[in-house]
Amino acid sequence: MFHNVTGMPTETLIRNAYLVLEAQGPQPHSGSGTGWEIDGGWIALQDGRVHSVGTSSEPEPQAQTVIDAEGRLVTPGLVNTHHHMYQNLTRAYAPAVNGTLFQWLTELYPRWAVLDEESTYLSTYVAAAELLLGGCTTSSDHMYVHPRPKLIDAQIRAPTEIGFRFMANRGSMTRSVEDGGLPPKEVVQDEETILEDSERLISTYHDPNPGAMVRMSLAPCSMFSVSESIMRATAELAEKHDVRLHTHLAEDKDEDTYALEVYGRRPVEYLEDCGWAHDRTWVAHYIYGSAEENRRLASAGVGATQCPSSNMILAGDTADARALREMGMSVGIGCDGSSSADSADLWAETRGALLLARHSHGPASFSARDALNMSTLGSAANLGWADELGHLRPGACADLVIWESSPLSQAGVLTDRVEGWLRSGPARAQDTFVAGRRLVAGGELQLAGLDDVLSRHRTAAAAMQGVSA
């Protein structure tokens, strides 16, 4: 264990907690594999980092702020590895709620074509605030609709103001309906514009240093909506700047047919040929890869994101997280866009991952700790951030959650706090810390501008949906 040897007060001490400092998971991409938990322990935070931890029998450091967790569960902050935040402007949009993936995309693309800087900022702010209440402290976002320039600049303003850790995915689409794709021409861009803007965003916002609050990755949307040349050029640009790559892959059965007809290859073969099969890549959904393709991507270091609620709402299949993890692939969790999942709640997605794995493989196949490992260390590995995020070992970023303990839902949970947390929900964050800052306190967001943002968001959402506010 570790204790304060300087005698100087730390900034924050959380005591009397059930600490999950690292969720147990399989080797090799999910931490030590053994996990690290302390019942009745304490954790001290200083300068945005985990300063020290200890058991109840070890001396606690002095601190400027002391929080008694009263026996509550404390975990690393959850990490969201796939989202489309702007889509909360069309949350539960009635004409699209019962459609298939392609049906709701076709219905909603024209609505998203009116996206501007104001609505992008507002939707990102709302998404980050909602994620904080669900215990999420870091999120990536796949922003691929660009009807106007500098939308990602507007997007980055929101988490920066809040103090939320963020990886902006500079998405792109080049192929409109006129070129055999799905989106209207208003939301696609030419390759030169995409690459120039990608360079600009990386040079302006990407922070490769430890403790970064904003990082960039490059994220062509999917093989349905971008050209092969932009896939290749984006991979080269990402290698040049040492940033990560993200895209949708093998999400729909029709993708196989499309890939064979257009590219003469299956989706995974196409990804490999475009220079994406390496450890700086993570892919969203990844449902329909063959066993051999799964092994190849796992061996190459490619990660995958499972989006449980989105897949179930769209009545599709889902990534086999258990099988992929057993192959050595880092598998994280994402809530996906609000137009399919309709909720930015990483606790709910973590529970969904638990249920899906057990439904497919049996009751002894997957535990709450496996699911928590996915939404912490697995997700952090997806983002290339597992050195600092997804665990609470001393020196890690001070991103953590004290979970609310509902007297009713937790009544009778006496033998396993982690299983009780995920089985006996719903659960909300009692306190959420990002870089040591308490952004949720007593279950309430500490965001002075939230009411104004919600009012403006309603106006923007009504305009986008063509209804009265």
Report on the structure:
The chain has 469 residues and is of the alpha/beta class. The protein folds into 2 domains: 10-77 and 391-445, Urease, subunit C, domain 1 (Roll); 78-382, TIM Barrel. It contains 14 helices and 17 strands. It has helices at 101-112, 117-133, 151-162, 191-205, 228-241, 254-263, 267-273, 291-300, 308-313, 321-326, 346-361, 368-382, 417-423, 450-465, and strands spanning 10-22, 36-46, 49-54, 63-68, 73-76, 78-80, 136-143, 165-172, 214-220, 244-249, 281-285, 303-306, 331-333, 400-403, 429-434, 437-441, 444-445. The strands form 2 sheets. Strands 1, 2, 3, 4, 5, 14, 15, 16 and 17 form a 9-stranded mixed β-sheet that branches. An 8-stranded parallel β-sheet has the order 6-7-8-9-10-11-12-13. The radius of gyration is 21 Å and the shape is globular. It starts with 9 loop residues before the first strand and ends with a helix. Pfam families: Amidohydro_1 (PF01979). Residues 73-407 form the Amidohydrolase-related domain. This is 8-oxoguanine deaminase. InterPro entries: Amidohydro-rel (IPR006680), Metal-dep_hydrolase_composite (IPR011059), Metal_Hydrolase (IPR032466), MTA/SAH_deaminase (IPR050287).
The CATH homology group name of the largest domain: Metal-dependent hydrolases
The name of the CATH architecture of the largest domain is Alpha-Beta Barrel
Q: Shape from CA axes?
A: globular
Q: Assign a percent range to the helix content.
A: 25-40%
Strand content: 15-25%
What's the overall average pLDDT, rounded? 93
CATH class of the largest domain: Alpha Beta
Q: What ranges have pLDDT less than 50 throughout 5 or more consecutive residues?
A: 1-6
Global structural class: alpha/beta
Domain count: the total is: 2
Query: CATH topology of the largest domain, what is it called?
Result: TIM Barrel
What's the gyration radius in Å? 21 Å
**Total helical elements:** 14
Distance between the termini: 55 Å
Q: How would you classify the quaternary structure?
A: single chain
Q: Outline the biggest β-sheet.
A: 9 strands, mixed
Strand tally is 17
